[in-house]
Amino acid sequence: MTIGITGATGQLGQLIVNKLKATQKDNLIALVRTPSKAEALGITARAFDYNQPEGLAAALKGIDTLLLISGNEIGKRKEQHENVVNAAKEAGVKRIVYTSLLRADNSTLVLAPEHLATENAIKASGIEYTILRNGWYTENYGASIPGAVQAGAFVGSAGNGKISSATREDYADAAVKVLTTEGHNGKIYELAGDTAYTLAELAAEISKQTGKEIPYQDLPENEYAAILVKIGFPEPVAQAFASFDVSASKGDLYSEDNTLSTLIGHPTTGLAAVVKATLA
Question: pTM score, two decimals?
Answer without folding.
Answer: 0.96
